[in-house]
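A.,

Following up on our hallway conversation. Structure tokens first:
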């Protein structure tokens, strides 16, 4: 019999150890508790302060939304019972559903919704766009609020359904009045789960309990919209960054769900009859390479252009262990391939890496050989593999590389530093976006290049911002399509980020878990343990 590869040997040993260590009565028999391992562990809890996926995942459990996106990407009322729109689309009136309550028992009021929108609009790229188009946002009565626009904004309900980055969740007015620059440290929402703050142990687990007072909508769940009926009493979000350990725990029945198993362990899980794999995110993910536009060398446009010629998407995906069947061989689209907004504009001649062209551009940019600091989140197998692969390609292309290792939570803090590399700053990092992150010119958070108040990386380009704004102001879908191509072509000149490979991964769960759906982001209402 041929020897097992190293990871398979580790996985087999870990599975046996986990199974022996687990009491027989505990192996998958507690039907009231769902145990999940997500891409990242919970590092902070303010959904406005951070764009990290772990905060968004936490937010969907604890909070609710005014509108939510269904499986077709259309905004549907969630906390809103009804809404009215003036014929010219410049005035909107929203009425909340009756009987909504926060976890502390206080009723959800229009004042809570308005305060939450205002705080969110200070930080999120979609919120800022809506706020810039707003003449007034005011409370009418306890259940009703009114939005009046100062200029056209064709995607009001879509904006209020913002599901990712700094997603729009409704929190009590007393918390929403916290300055957006100050983190909220209390997670009181009106959502289907209650956060058990006393049981949260960073680096170990976060715990949520079913909200018995939650009032789900009557419709069936559809995407992130519809009725949120919780069918377990307790959910434990467990930190388990080691791929082999997580896979072994799933096989042993110690956990119930893994959002993104390492590609290396997928073949082992496929052979286990107690495990099922499915595509949580059918469109897939895109690796984004984010350069820092403030400090050398990538404050120079030609240095950023050089990066384009050093990125080999297929090499990145192969290094991450993504199976060929789950790879998109090449995708230049800023709004992902396989979507209605896929575009090739601006990407001519970029399919193949060209290190010689990169060297020429670096010389023209005045690159002086200084260290390029490429932050590496080693606790994410995909981020780590792609970062190391691209760092090697950049080294071959003439850049001097420094690749400091850290966990993702630390990276999300360090990337906010604007200092030079020598003072603890940075030049590059990798993040992985889903289709909701990259959906269109309005919602794509890293495409925004506002000069003031942007996200880490801080791109600045007035023309790209003008094109983006014209896209969401245009009510005609055919004209928006033409503008979209112009947006992408301009993005390839500015390079707020670089597409570094699109792929799909599978999620894994025990076969006794039912109700999981292809929601793109992990949500656990409607999920039960048989």
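Then the amino acids I'd put at each of the 530 positions:
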């Amino acid at each position: 019999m041929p020897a097992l590869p190293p990871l398979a040997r580790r996985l087999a040993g870990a599975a046996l150890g986990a199974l022996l260590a687990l009491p027989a009565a505990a192996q998958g028999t507690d039907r009231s508790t769902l145990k999940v391992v997500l891409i990242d562990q919970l590092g902070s809890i303010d959904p406005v302060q951070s764009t990290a996926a772990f905060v968004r995942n936490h937010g969907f459990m604890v909070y609710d939304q005014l509108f939510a996106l269904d499986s077709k990407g259309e905004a549907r009322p969630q906390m809103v019972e009804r809404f009215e729109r003036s014929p010219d689309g410049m005035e909107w009136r929203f009425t909340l559903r009756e009987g909504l309550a926060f976890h502390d028992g206080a009723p959800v009021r229009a004042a809570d919704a308005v305060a939450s929108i205002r705080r969110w609009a200070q930080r999120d790229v979609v919120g800022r766009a809506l706020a810039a188009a707003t003449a007034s946002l005011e409370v009418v009565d306890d259940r009703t609020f009114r939005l009046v626009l100062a200029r056209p904004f064709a995607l009001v309900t879509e904006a209020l359904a913002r599901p990712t980055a700094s997603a729009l969740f409704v929190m009590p007015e007393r918390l929403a009045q916290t300055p957006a620059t100050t983190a909220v440290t209390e997670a009181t929402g009106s959502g289907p789960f209650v956060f058990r703050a006393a049981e949260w142990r960073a680096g170990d687990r976060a715990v949520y309990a079913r909200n018995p007072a939650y009032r789900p909508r009557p419709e069936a769940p559809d995407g992130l919209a519809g009725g949120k009926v919780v069918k377990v009493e307790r959910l434990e979000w467990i930190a388990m960054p080691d791929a082999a350990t997580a896979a072994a725990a799933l096989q042993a029945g110690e956990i119930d769900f893994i959002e993104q198993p390492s590609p290396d362990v997928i073949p082992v899980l496929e052979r286990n009859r107690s495990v099922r794999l499915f595509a949580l995110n059918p469109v897939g993910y895109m690796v984004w390479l984010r350069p820092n536009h403030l400090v050398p060398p990538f404050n120079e446009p030609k240095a950023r252009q050089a990066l384009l010629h050093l990125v080999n998407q297929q090499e990145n995906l192969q290094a991450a262990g993504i199976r060929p069947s789950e790879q998109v061989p090449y995708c230049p689209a800023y709004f992902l391939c396989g979507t209605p907004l896929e575009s090739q504009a601006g990407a001519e001649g970029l399919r193949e890496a060209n290190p010689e062209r990169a060297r020429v551009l670096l010389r023209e940019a005045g690159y002086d050989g200084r260290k390029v600091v490429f932050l590496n989140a080693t606790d994410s197998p995909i981020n780590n593999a792609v970062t190391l692969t691209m760092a090697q390609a950049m080294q071959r292309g003439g850049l001097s590389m420094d690749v400091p290792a850290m966990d993702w939570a630390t990276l999300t803090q360090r990337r906010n530093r604007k200092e030079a590399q020598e003072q603890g700053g940075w030049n590059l990092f990798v993040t992985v976006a889903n289709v909701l992150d990259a959906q269109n010119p309005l919602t794509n958070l890293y495409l925004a290049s506002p000069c003031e108040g942007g996200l880490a990386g801080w791109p600045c380009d007035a023309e790209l911002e003008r094109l983006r704004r014209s896209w969401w102001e245009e009510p005609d879908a055919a004209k928006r399509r033409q503008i979209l191509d112009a947006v992408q072509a301009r993005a390839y000149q500015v390079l707020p980020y670089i597409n570094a490979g699109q792929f799909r991964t599978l999620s894994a769960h025990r076969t006794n878990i039912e109700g999981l759906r292809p929601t793109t982001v992990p949500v656990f209402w409607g999920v039960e343990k048989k």
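The domain at 285-503 is CATH 3.10.105.10 (Dipeptide-binding Protein; domain 3). Curious whether your intuition agrees with the design.

B.
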